Amino acid sequence: MDWENCILVGSQLSPSQVDELEIALIRDPICLSARAKLLSYYWSHERENGMREKHHEHALWIIQNHPEHDLAACVPIEIAPEANSDWFERAKESWLGHLDNDSRNLKVLANAASFFGESDFELALSLYERGKRLEPGNVFWNERLALILHLRSHGMPNEFANRALEEQNQAYELSAGQAKFVALVPLPEYAVNAGQLALAASYSHSLLDCSVKHRDNPLFGSAVHEANITVALHAIVAGDMSKAVTYLERSYADTCPPVNFLNANTRMLLQRLLSAGETGAVLKYLRYCQKRHTDRRIVTWIHSIESGITPQIARHLV
């Protein structure tokens, strides 16, 4: 079963189709395809009257009855504690009960950690750490730990950023082939976030060197963009403005800027280039991105720069 497609179809259901699926569930309560579509529909319409309650009913049923299933880790399973404390506590009780009954079930452990990733950082962290102890050779746990710690750092060089870099580097060292390329992709950003710009540049050069072998990988565009941006950022901090501009241009010369092209590293680079008077290079980059993305900030920044005003693109600089 293609569960991602079920989620997509569910978000586009009509009210009459929803009624039909609810009736079908009465006849066959364990039909997971119907349950997945309804979960997605109610999650997509959560702000409408009565929809949130229905969403939570289906989410809790999946957690209680199929904690090992892929659906138990999908985005629409989320129950936000701040708005739904009773339902969240019931879900939490179910997850912890499953883990007490089968503490070594790695699939349930991973799903539970994913569920709490945005709602209970300490619990999610402890679950991912438990998984790493139980299965130390599986880079999944290192990468999930790296991601949750990176997000917790809030883009600042702190203990979370340092641990995120350490975990992702472990994943990189443990990987081989295509997986090694995938594990390398986030390392430049993580290293910058940890305040280790020279290390970030080193990772970036490695990424650029090996990326030509992985042009068919979905991460190719992000990898090339991020690596060039990071090398440019390192160059500008070192005072080599010409190199910084060159690598900014290379970031979009061979591939369309990815969806996350305005991440923290890119914004820091653009801000520093503006401060150094390189408005032409920044405008060229923003205009290129404007043709391919609909982010409204781009229009605002272009207008400000053309009016002789330096916009605040980055919140802080390395």
Outline the structure in words.
With 318 residues, the protein is mainly α. The protein has helices spanning 3-11, 15-27, 32-44, 51-65, 85-101, 106-115, 121-134, 139-152, 159-174, 178-184, 187-193, 197-211, 220-237, 241-250, 264-275, 279-290, 296-306. The longest helix has 18 residues, at 220-237. The chain is globular and about 70 Å long. The relative contact order is 0.05. The mean pLDDT is 93.
- Reading the helices and strands in chain order gives HHHHHHHHHHHHHHHHH
| Content-based structural category | mainly alpha
- The parts where pLDDT drops under 50 for at least 5 residues are none
What's the story with the biggest beta sheet? none
What amount of the residues lies in strands? under 5%
What is the general shape?
A: globular
Alpha carbon gyration radius: 23 Å
Helicity, as a percent range: 55-70%
Average pLDDT reading: 93
The termini sit apart by 46 Å
Number of helices: 17
Please give the number of β-strands: 0
Question: What's this entry about, in short?
Answer:
The protein is mainly alpha-helical. The protein contains 17 helices and no strands.
Q: What are the defining features of this structure?
A:
single chain; 318 residues; mainly alpha; 67% helix
Task: Describe how the helices and strands are arranged.
Elements: H1 3-11, H2 15-27, H3 32-44, H4 51-65, H5 85-101, H6 106-115, H7 121-134, H8 139-152, H9 159-174, H10 178-184, H11 187-193, H12 197-211, H13 220-237, H14 241-250, H15 264-275, H16 279-290, H17 296-306
